Structures are given as structure tokens and as C-alpha cells.
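Checklist before submission:
- one chain only
- standard amino acids only
- sequence pasted in full

Submission:
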Amino acid sequence: MASMVRQLFIAFLAGVFLMAPAVAGAEERVEVVALVPDEGERIVFGGRTYAGVITVRATNGVLVVTEVVDLDGYLGGIREVPFSWPEEALEAQAVAARTYLAWTLNRGRAGNGARYGFDICATTACQVYAGTGLVDRPSGEPWLDAVAATAGEILIYDGSPAQTLYSSSSGPRTRSVEDIWGGTPKPYLVAVDSAEEDATPYWQWSVELPVDAVTRILAEDGYRVGGDIREVEVQQTEDGGGIWRLAVETERGSVAVPNTTVRNAFNRHGTTLYPGLLPANRPTGGTWPQAILSYTFDVELLAPDGPSLPAPLIALLPPDDTPEDAVVVFEGTGWGHGVGMSQWGAKAMADQGFTHEEILAHYYGGLEPETSDEFVPDDVVVGLGWGGLEETFAATGVFELWANGVRVDAFGPGEWTMRLLSNGIAVIPPAGVSDPRLGNRRWPR
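Returned file contents:
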């Protein structure tokens, strides 16, 4: 494992330095530092453990942390569903995750990946990757088995990897991709039934907020609703009919905000502005995981401690008579964007005896797994973090420290800090480690 990781690392650095300009003189700025763990050892970063090569680069005035890891190591580190779920649900998730990686790489680096030099990020913005922390334990074996059992399997549409979007729960029905984000429809990302009523804890959810809280949160996101609210409703469409919108009417006019924007605004600003109200309480205890869980919701304007206010009646009331303590109730279903495979729906199907091929075909327009190595890489560069000026790493055992593609030395367990300065990266070792080169920003080649 260690020799393979080192080969991947050297190949990665070769690509970096072939594209980098030569630096004159006997010394050069330290712009790339790497920690290469020995076989069986780990590097800890951000509370998670990693077996691949951790690389720290100075890019665009910030530190960028990536991991170079082989394909199975990357897939093994995916943390999208509980490892205790049925085998066929885990295998469906493994194929969806492998395909999504293949789709991402086939599309080419974009956004932060293009800006900071990695293939795919480790967060929910891509798919959740958390290193080796759980699969190092016996409880992770079912997931590793699912990855191995589906080796090489991806979903292909029109000669290319499919965009296998998935989310936690869709409620009774998934959503067509164009009804969430607009754009061109995809025949494998269309709305289908998802029989997860008795499986998912997110089948139904409800959030109740004062009217002024709703207007303030929308205003924080740039949508200003002037005047007292007289009516609110969600303008829903049939499957494939377009984006749902929250229509808000006041005596001064009306505004329609896409449900996607509403959810994002509430999740971005709601808990900060109203920490006592959001996330809302769950009927079973605790709170919901987000302020607004999905894009699939309806709304209702209610009088304080009273019934719904009929819109015609509200329209006849003078502005001063509109109840200031009225509330808006959000009634929704599912958790996540609801496009593609529902993870709780996949579990429900697996519990009923469906195979992973049948689960995938149901949620992805009839597509079935194909074994192909054309789009699946041997190794992956995963973006673990970017934007910081100082990062701390801990080695569990022996590792090699490299700078600008040159091996510095092997070191034992301990905590290391990388700090970005104006003229390079300062490497700060643990107490007791002495090396005249450590702490400098310029090292000999």
C-alpha cells in the first residue's frame, strides 16, 4: 500500500512541477508539502483519518489540502448511508457513488476543483468522503464488501457516465431535475414513485414561523417583500412543468421566489437570525437536521392561534388590520434535493427484496450497471479543504515529509502545522523534532 501510494504521489507531483515555472538559484519557495504515511499508518486532518498522501499547497493566497488516494480507497471512504443497511442498498449506493465520480471526472474540473487543483470535493457539495475513520473498524466491512462486489460498475447514458444524483429522502415521489434547477431535462433524472413511507424519518416535516421571520430571512438573501403579507402560496407544477415558486403577496405587490432559493436562504440565514426557532422541533424529540429540509414543500398563512386566513378576506382588510402575529407554516416531505435515487427509498426497496440493479433502474430511468474502466480512474485527487492560512495535521505513526517534490526525511507520530506566509509555507514540527530546514520557507532542491 505504501509503495503504491508513493507512486501515485510522485506521479501527481510530476504533473504539478512539469507545469510549474523553474525557480532560479539553489533554493526555492516551499509551495507544496506532502505527508506520505507508511503502510497501516494514517494522517489525521480536521478530525478525520486518511491513508493516502496528504498534500498542502499554497494557491491563490490560501492553503489547499488534498489527498491523493486510489479509487477503492476513495470509494471506501464515502459516508453516505449507514453501513448497517441491507446489502443491495449498499451496492446501489456504491454504483451511484462510482458513477458520480466518473461523471465528475468526465466533465472536467470545474469551480473550486479547477481553481485549486482537485478532482472532487469531500463535502455534500459533491459526495461525502471522510477517509478511513469508519472502514478501519469491523462495522465498515459491509460497505467495503459492497464496493468490491460492484467493482467497475457504473451507469452509462449515451456513451458517457450518467449524472447519478441522489439524496437522503424524496418522500412519496422524486423530482425531475428540471423542476429543481431548471435547464435541460435528463431522461434518467425524472420523477418516480418512492415507497419509503414506513422507512424514512423524513416522510413529513413541518416548520412554523412568524410572518416577520419569513420576510426577514428572504430579505437577508436579497428578496425584499415590502408591506404586510396578505397571502402566501407555493405555485406548484406537474412533473416536468418547471420550478416550484413561493408566491408572497402584500398590499404593495407580489414576488415569486423559487423554492430552491427559499430553502437555501432559510438554511443559510435562518438558524443565525432565529436560533430559537430553527431548526424546528421534531414531533419525536430533538430538532430537524436543517431549517428547511427539501425543495418539496407547500405553505399556509395562519392567524395567531386560529384557522387559515382565506385569501379573499385578507385582501379586503386594511393593512393595519392584518394580524401582525400571523404565522407561515411550511409543510414538506423528504430531505435533500429529491432528484435521482432516494437513499431511504433504496433501503425500502432492498428490504422488499429488490436487487441493486433493480433499485438503480427504478431511480435512474431504466439504466442498468455496466462494467467499464474507460471512465473510472486508478487514483483520485480529493479536495479536503481550502481557504485557510494555517492547517494542523497529526501522524499516527511513521510518515515521510516531502517538500516541492523532494523527500525531506521520515518522522514519527506527532502534530505538524503548515502556515502560509508571504514567501512560502512554514512547516512547524512537533516539540522535540529538530531539523534546521523545518520552519524555513525556502529549502534546497
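Reviewer check: The CA atoms of residues 35 and 401 lie 5 Å apart.
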